[in-house]
Amino acid sequence: MLTRLAVEWSSTLVGMRLVSFRQESGERFRLAFASESDALSLLASIDPLHPWIGEAGKRWEGPRWSPDPFATTTAHALDGRLVTRVVKPPADRTLRVDLGDGGGLVFELAPHGANVILLGGDGTVAASLRSPKGSKERLTPGRPWSERALPAARRDPFGASAAEIDALLSGGATRGEASADTLRREFIGLGQVGVGLAIDEQADSGRSLGSVLRARLDSILEGSAEVVIEGPDGSDDPARSELLPWRPGKVRPGRRLFARERAAATAAHFHEALDAQRRVRARIAALLVILRGELARARSAERKVREGLASFEDPDRFRRMGEALLASLSFAVRSGDVVVVSDPYDPDGRDVVVPAPPGRSLAQVADDLFRRHRRARRGLEAAGARAEALSQRAARMESLLALHERATDGTGADCLEADMRSERLPVGLVAATRSARAAARAVPPRLDGVRLIVSAEGWTILVGRSGPDNDRLTFKIASPDDIWLHAAGVHGAHVIIRNPERAGAAPSATLAEAARLALWFSDARSEAAGDVHWTRRKNVRRAKGGGSGQVVLKRFETIRVRPQSPRDDT
Prior knowledge:
Layout: H1 2-12, E1 17-25, E2 28-34, E3 39-45, E4 52-55, H2 69-78, E5 85-87, E6 94-98, E7 104-108, E8 115-119, E9 125-128, H3 162-174, H4 179-186, H5 192-205, H6 209-222, E10 228-232, E11 242-244, E12 255-258, H7 263-311, H8 315-327, E13 333-335, E14 338-342, E15 351-355, H9 362-404, H10 410-422, H11 434-442, E16 450-454, E17 460-464, H12 467-477, E18 483-487, E19 495-497, H13 508-520, E20 530-536, E21 540-542, E22 551-553, E23 557-561
Antiparallel strand pairs: 1-2, 2-3, 3-4, 5-6, 6-7, 7-8, 8-9, 10-11, 10-12, 13-14, 14-15, 16-17, 17-19, 18-19, 18-20, 20-23, 21-22
Helix pairs in contact: 3-4, 3-6, 4-5, 5-6, 7-9, 7-10, 8-9
């Protein structure tokens, strides 16, 4: 495949000038070439597992990337240079683009050894993106660049005649070896797909496998081989498709062929689809890891609450002791810090010992016991309700896992993320910019320092947990038109009302609900009521010389509310 692309670029690229060398991600580079009458862009990915190169067909949809110093050095060295030659060394996954005066670029595209190398004017190594241990000496700046050493026992298929190939196959057959195994063992660079195509054609045509393979290799060198994508009918799933180095003689049942105008464009279309699918699946996997972690935490919290329930004192015990004490006030016997009275609920009239701290009258002791009864009953009810809420939350997350664990596409990832946010899991909380949304799609962040609450009117409210969390929420997550709130004059959480539609103002009920949360998550929680400042996030600035989370407001308005805890806070 790489040889076929090199043949194509030897005619289309030579004579063009490199007008841009840009790093789009940690492993992806875009090269733009232009002449007086034409323009062409190449994409090169040096992903360790799936390196590839091809002709760019669409813009990068991932997050913006700060270029590596190598990218900046290469752009300064090569921008405006003329392409003089495109070389594909025999039997190696390496492509060299010479750009005048002996300088140029080398793309090494072997799995687990992918790299980009900048060559100086005398063909020496000027810089390389990676310096693997095995190639460190070979890639030392100032040394002449050389190809990696290839296995001595394997041959270049482009240099073998049809008779030589058939002789090797005959020897393999004598040893009981399959033809495909012989070809891959004897030759380097013959992929499984190409070998399979040649064997199928040999079976259909009746010609020798050596002559079929030789003819196909010649078509690659001549540039007449048509690179195509073979995929299933009615599906665009790249994982079920294959990139073929030439058009097969017949199409398998249930499959179809697809090709772009040029071989390099077809190759890039295939690889970009695969890369996009890998990114989506990595995003889904990351979301499911978060969901499983939250499920485990919910189950653990439920278990601890239920264990605590078992240790609660019986509330009715305090009530019975209080009633026994009141029934015996006139003749109760007090001894030290206890009172011995008859138990009115015991059919045998046995005594019960009631704690009676010194300095408290028996009536006051009875009141204390009834108060403890009410408090213990409320605590028991609250703990039971919390345990039940945690159990229901865990059950809902188990349902989400069952519903989404087979998701494979972008729509499935979006639905999973939306359902997780409905469970108040803070995922996908990014600023409303293209680059931030793309970054979240690539690696979905979960912000443990942010509470996610949905208002009664359906608006998303975010609450910071600490100073650094407040700072990140306000200046990294919130968008300029989001509504920002903070309790006036006291330490507290930053609160954000998301405003993706850039509405003129949040509904008054949602604004009041967010203000109550800001007061609740502040040092004014115990106050009967308090003031809360609110404004657009774009009116908030970091305080010069202040600590993390400290801000100044360009303008603001004030709302007075009572503090209130979040609904169903778990």
